[in-house]
Write a structure and sequence with these properties.
The chain is an alpha+beta fold. Helices cover about 50% and strands about 10% of the residues. It has one domain. α5 runs antiparallel to α6, α6 packs antiparallel against α8 and α6 packs across α10. The two termini are about 15 Å apart.
C-alpha cells in the first residue's frame, strides 16, 4: 500500500522532510467531496463531510479532521467551501496558518489573517482587515451536528462578519478563512468590492508583514527541529 501511494502521490513523500504543505489535510478531503458531489448540492456535501468525519473519529488514532465547514457565495452563484484548520495542537496550527498565508490563501484574505497573526495583535503599520459586501453569504456549520454557527469575534475582526459571538479562536483557524479565500479567488467582483479598512502604503507594509510571519514560521519550525528549504508543496 505504501509503495502504491508513493507512485500515485509522489510529491508529499519527496518533500515532507524539507518543504511545507500549503494546506491542512482535511482541505484536500473537502475538495474531493465537492468535486464528486457537485458544489450546488450543499446539503449532500455537508452530509458526506459529516460521514467521513464520523468514520475517522471511530479509530484509535487521533485523526487530523476539521470541526467546522463554511459556505460562501453571492446570490445565484457557485458555492465555495472551506473547513477549519485540521491540525493537532496549537503550534502545528500556527505553522499551517502561516504557511497558508504565505502560499495558498487569497492575498486579501491572507492579509486579514496576518494583521492579527503575531500574538493576536496588529503588526505595526499594517492593517489588512476587510469588510465584505452586503450581498456575500458566509455561513459556517458544525460538521457533526449540522447546526448553523454564528461567526466568532475573530472573523468579525478580520472580515466584518455581522453579529459575532464573544468566542475568539486563533486567527486563521476558522472555516470562514478558506471558504472566503476560495470565493475571492474565483469571483473577481467580490474581491474588488471587499473594502480594505486601510489602503495607504499597503504594499510596503504588507511586505513587512509577510517577512514577520515568515520569521515567526521559521522560529516555530526550529522548535520542532524541522529544516525548511523555504518552499511549499500542494498536498495532493
Amino acid at each position: 500500500m505504501l509503495d502504491y501511494l508513493k507512485d500515485i502521490y509522489p510529491r508529499p513523500f519527496d518533500h515532507y522532510s524539507s518543504q511545507l504543505p500549503k494546506r491542512s489535510p482535511f482541505s484536500c478531503v473537502l475538495d474531493m467531496i465537492v468535486l464528486l458531489t457537485g458544489e450546488e448540492n450543499e446539503e449532500e456535501v455537508k452530509k458526506k463531510v459529516q460521514e467521513i468525519t464520523s468514520q475517522l473519529r471511530r479509530g484509535r488514532t487521533r485523526p487530523l479532521i476539521s470541526s467546522t465547514i463554511c459556505v460562501s457565495q453571492i446570490p445565484n452563484s457557485v458555492r465555495y467551501y472551506g473547513v477549519s484548520m485540521s491540525t493537532a495542537g496549537r503550534i502545528p496550527g500556527r505553522i499551517m496558518v502561516a504557511a497558508s498565508c504565505l502560499s495558498s490563501w487569497d492575498s486579501n484574505v491572507a492579509g486579514a489573517v496576518m494583521t492579527y497573526y503575531l500574538n493576536n495583535a496588529n503588526i505595526p503599520d499594517f492593517d489588512g482587515t476587510i469588510r465584505l459586501p452586503e450581498n456575500v453569504r458566509c455561513e459556517a456549520f458544525n460538521i457533526l451536528q449540522g447546526t448553523l454557527l454564528l461567526p466568532c469575534r475573530t472573523c468579525g475582526n478580520m472580515f466584518g462578519l455581522r453579529h459575532p459571538t464573544d468566542q475568539e479562536w486563533p486567527y486563521g483557524n476558522c472555516a470562514e478563512v478558506e471558504s472566503l479565500s476560495n470565493l475571492f479567488k474565483n469571483v473577481e467582483e467580490v474581491r474588488e468590492q471587499a473594502r480594505l479598512i486601510v489602503a495607504n502604503n499597503m504594499e510596503d507594509n504588507r511586505q513587512r508583514a509577510e517577512r514577520s510571519v515568515q520569521t515567526e514560521l521559521r522560529r516555530l519550525l526550529r522548535q520542532h527541529n524541522f529544516t525548511w528549504d523555504g518552499n511549499f508543496f500542494t498536498p495532493q
